[in-house]
Design goal:
This protein has about 160 residues and is mainly α. It has seven helices and no strands. It is flat, with a radius of gyration of 23 Å.
Length: about 160
């Protein structure tokens, strides 16, 4: 390959990379499927949320099958499932400030807003944690071992706060 052809190809690659980078930066961190506050929306976000809900339901079904719950434990399972349902992505917007709104605040106001958000998330996590602990107490020793192994394997998928 000649030096001129090589330089032309390298220049073309550099221009294409610069164009791709500029386009990605213009879309922002959430791409074009995000609202002004950064909450995902649109068909891609809906598909992603649907896949996440299906995966969560599958994890729960698998866990329930492995736990081999008794009839007496079904009520505790139902409460556990209800309490640990992930929030829809749109609901996460309630737990975040729009970047434009944050930009209008003074530094002390932004700190207060971030601390309030942290407190809200901590309360949500505490509520989910208590639901897991309450359910866990209703399990036999063998079931607790299964629960421990399964929730560890899935990165605490069952007990993790979905905010």
């Amino acid at each position: 390959m000649t030096t001129l052809t090589h330089r032309f190809l390298m220049s073309s690659v550099a221009v294409l990379l610069a164009a791709a980078t500029t386009t990605a930066m213009a879309r922002g961190p959430m791409g074009c499927d995000a609202s002004a506050d950064g909450t995902p929306q649109g068909p891609r976000a809906e598909k992603m949320q649907q896949r996440m809900a299906e995966r969560h339901a599958q994890h729960q079904a698998d866990l329930k099958a492995k736990l081999k719950l008794s009839a007496e434990q079904e009520a505790a399972w139902a409460q556990f499932v209800q309490a640990t349902q992930p929030k829809p992505m749109g609901a996460a917007g309630a737990m975040r400030q729009a970047p434009a709104d944050m930009a209008r605040l003074t530094t002390p106001e932004r700190i207060d807003a971030m601390q309030a958000l942290h407190a809200e998330r901590a309360a949500h996590m505490a509520q989910r944690g208590e639901a897991v602990k309450t359910f866990y107490k209703n399990l036999s020793t063998d079931q607790q071992a299964v629960f421990d192994a399964e929730t560890t394997r899935h990165g605490m998928e069952i007990g993790r706060a979905h905010v």
